[in-house]
């Protein structure tokens, strides 16, 4: 029986027909009714069986699924944190002449301490049932008490995107092909691009950020592009806002985020392998070579990495 609610808080009576200890999958049928929702989530217009994606952020559940969240500790004293901003001034060049100059600086501010909660990074996939019908599926889950919060999250992820879902036992779960077609990345036309050209290509994702932050994001992208990457890939769906600069000859891939207070990840695996990884895998401490925090010394650190 389909679950049709805005959100659930507990497993409760929402999961029927599946016994504790069994494996199950959260699914959505009758996909012809949800074409617009599926495209908004990041799937292609063809809705090809095997397509998989980290769904785009459209609300608090999918936002947490893709980006994680912070638990803010308001019971503790405030601490000093830093954000990057652009400082602009007029430089005196003569009796009646000035020139506008700018640079990226750290701006201190006070905030409550916070703890980052890692994103679940649940991907959704298009599968096919025994009747040849396309079905949207979550990864298979164990229906055990320890996994209740994960199931609640997945159900709410479906409800936020599509308004309904149903629970299937593992033996009724639609079958996925052996190789998934991940849609998380769009590789821009290959070849080295001058910054003026690449800036236009990246404008759609940078433009979604607050106006005061765009100059800092542009400066970071431009600083990496100086080293002439062989290709640039733009994140889609839940990877929206992420850009990969590829340097295959150096076996280096720079994963950059438009989020001001995020970090830059230096990866050293083949791009084909990286492009099939989930977000959680890409950001895992064991997989990235280096993590460069968005602070004032970011530019020096990136230059060091790309000059090595």
Which secondary structure elements does this structure contain, and how are they paired or packed?
Elements: E1 23-28, H1 35-41, E2 51-53, H2 60-67, E3 69-72, E4 79-92, E5 98-111, E6 114-117, E7 124-128, E8 134-137, E9 141-142, H3 148-162, E10 166-169, E11 181-182, E12 185-187, H4 195-206, H5 211-225, E13 231-235, E14 242-247, E15 252-257, E16 263-267, H6 271-274, H7 279-282, E17 288-293, H8 298-307
Parallel strand pairs: 2-11
Antiparallel strand pairs: 1-8, 1-9, 1-10, 2-7, 3-6, 4-5, 7-8, 12-13, 13-14, 14-15, 15-16, 16-17
Helix pairs in contact: 4-5
User: Kindly state the mean pLDDT as a whole number?
Assistant: 90
Question: Compute the gyration radius: what is it?
Answer: 22 Å
Shape summary: globular
- Compute the number of helices: 8
Condensed summary:
The protein has eight helices and 17 strands. With 308 residues, the protein is an alpha+beta fold.
How would you characterize the overall build of this protein?
This protein is of the alpha+beta class and 308 residues long. The chain has three domains: 23-67 and 121-182, Alpha-Beta Plaits (2-Layer Sandwich), CATH 3.30.70; 70-116, no CATH class; 185-307, no CATH class. Helix content is 24%, strand content 30%. Helix 4 (195-206) packs antiparallel against helix 5 (211-225). The model has no long low-confidence stretch (mean pLDDT 90).
């Amino acid at each position: 029986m389909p679950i049709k609610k805005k959100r659930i808080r507990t497993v409760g009576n929402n999961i029927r027909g599946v016994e504790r200890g069994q494996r199950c999958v959260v699914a959505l049928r009758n996909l012809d009714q949800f074409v617009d929702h599926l495209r908004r989530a990041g799937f292609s217009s063809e809705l090809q069986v095997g397509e998989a994606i980290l769904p785009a952020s459209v609300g608090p559940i999918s936002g947490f699924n893709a980006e994680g969240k912070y638990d803010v500790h308001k019971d503790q004293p405030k601490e000093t944190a830093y954000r990057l901003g652009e400082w602009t001034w007029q430089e005196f060049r003569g009796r009646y002449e000035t020139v506008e100059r700018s640079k990226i600086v750290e701006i201190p501010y006070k905030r409550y301490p916070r703890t980052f909660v890692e994103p679940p990074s649940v991907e959704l996939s298009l599968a096919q049932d025994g009747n040849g019908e396309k079905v949207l599926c979550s990864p298979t889950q164990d229906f055990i008490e320890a996994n209740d919060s994960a199931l609640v999250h997945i159900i709410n992820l479906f409800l936020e995107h599509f308004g309904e879902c149903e629970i299937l036992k593992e033996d009724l779960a639609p079958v996925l092909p052996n190789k998934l077609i991940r849609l998380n990345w769009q590789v821009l036309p290959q070849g080295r691009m001058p910054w003026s050209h690449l800036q236009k290509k990246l404008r759609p994702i940078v433009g979604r950020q607050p106006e005061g932050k765009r100059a800092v994001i542009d400066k970071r992208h431009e600083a990496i592009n100086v080293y002439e990457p062989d290709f640039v890939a733009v994140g889609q769906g839940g990877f929206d806002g992420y850009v990969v600069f590829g340097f295959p000859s150096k076996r280096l891939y720079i994963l950059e985020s438009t989020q001001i207070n995020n970090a830059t990840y230096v990866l050293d695996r083949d791009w084909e392998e990286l492009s099939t990884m989930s977000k959680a895998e890409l950001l895992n401490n064991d997989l990235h070579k280096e993590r460069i925090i968005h602070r004032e010394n970011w530019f020096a650190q990136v230059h060091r990495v790309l000059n090595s």
